[in-house]
Amino acid sequence: MREYIRRCKEAYCAGGSELEYVQRVLSESEDPGRQDLVRRGTRVLIDLSKSQGRDKFIPIHSVRLFSGIRKGQSKTAGLWPWLERHADVIEREKGQGAYRIKREFYDAMEEVFR
């Protein structure tokens, strides 16, 4: 687990809200150039979740297509902070390259990326 994810998760587990957790992970994630990838990929995941349904798993190739993020830029189409081990914000469909935002974090993600 990356150090900043660990710090963010500890603050959340100590009584922070989902919104604070999402904001904190986003603000502490990597360098500004890569942060753009996170914003683009996450925004697309939220938009696709809205249109297809919150509980639907969204294929990673759809996130790439609509965000314009190429595989060489990011294997996870900018979703890596949320997928980091024990970050527990986005879940992967078993055996598939598809993701969805966990229910408890959906409203927080939507608010931060509004």
Spatial strand order of the main sheet: 1-3-2
Mean pLDDT: 92
Characterize the overall form: globular
DSSP strand (E) fraction? 5-15%
Order of helices and strands: HHHEHHEEH
The biggest beta sheet is recorded as: 3 strands, antiparallel
What would you call the structural class?
mainly alpha
Helix proportion: 55-70%
Q: Uncertain runs with pLDDT below 50, 5 residues or more?
A: none
Helix run count? 6
Using the CA coordinates, give the radius of gyration: 13 Å
Distance between termini? 28 Å
**Using DSSP, what is the number of strands?**
3
Structure in words:
The structure is a single chain. It is built from six helices and three strands, in the order αααβααββα. It has a three-stranded antiparallel sheet with strand order 1-3-2. β2 and β3 form a beta hairpin. α2 packs across α6. The longest helix has 21 residues.
Q: What topology does this entry show?
A:
Blueprint: H1 3-13, H2 18-28, H3 32-52, E1 58-59, H4 60-67, H5 80-83, E2 90-92, E3 98-101, H6 103-112
Antiparallel strand pairs: 1-3, 2-3
Helix pairs in contact: 1-2, 2-6, 3-4
Short description:
The protein has about 110 residues and is mostly helical.
Q: What are its keywords?
A:
57% helix; 114 residues; three-stranded antiparallel β-sheet; mainly alpha; 3 strands; globular
